[in-house]
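step=encode ok
step=design start
structure_in=
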């Protein structure tokens, strides 16, 4: 019996422990090639128009990956709107990429009066987020693109207004 308990406890410990990755496969920042692929990735907006992130090249862009069912995503929406309003005059834009269907996203955007562009993600979005540095694939996830379209900063989890300012301001000041 003691052996069985020890075996179960060891199995639980091993399965719950975070994996230790060798340096060769540790998470890294996206490469310029990944950045360029992301800029060229087609998305659809809520009107059905196909758009790419290339459209915002020349501006600093906070790209926020989110979903209507994600509580922290919903919680950070007012701060995203405020950051958009605060820095727009300096060449800044927030773009949301919803990992949700267009109908649910459209209802959410209308209800909460989201004033920045919202694009609809596709089935491979988790892989795209991983390529952009989000190894866990969790939401919300945000990346700040510099004016050349390269990932300058990233953040996994809820962004407060101050944290957004801390991410965006240095990139705008370059």
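sequence_out=
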């Amino acid at each position: 019996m003691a052996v069985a308990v020890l075996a179960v406890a060891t199995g639980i410990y091993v399965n719950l422990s975070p994996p230790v990755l060798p340096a060769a496969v540790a998470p890294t920042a996206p490469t310029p090639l990944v950045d360029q692929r992301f800029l060229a990735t087609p998305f659809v907006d809520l009107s059905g128009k196909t758009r790419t992130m290339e459209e915002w090249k020349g501006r600093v862009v906070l790209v926020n990956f989110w979903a209507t069912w994600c509580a922290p995503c919903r919680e950070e929406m007012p701060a995203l709107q405020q950051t958009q309003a605060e820095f727009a005059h300096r060449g800044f834009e927030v773009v949301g990429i919803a990992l949700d269907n267009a109908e649910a996203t459209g209802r959410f955007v209308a209800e909460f009066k989201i004033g920045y562009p919202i694009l609809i993600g596709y089935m491979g979005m988790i892989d795209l987020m991983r390529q952009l540095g989000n190894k866990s694939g969790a939401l919300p996830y945000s990346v700040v693109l510099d004016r050349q379209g390269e990932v300058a900063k990233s953040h996994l989890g809820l962004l407060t207004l101050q944290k957004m300012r801390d991410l965006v301001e240095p990139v705008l000041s370059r």
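step=design ok
step=annotate ok -> The two ends are 64 Å apart (CA to CA).
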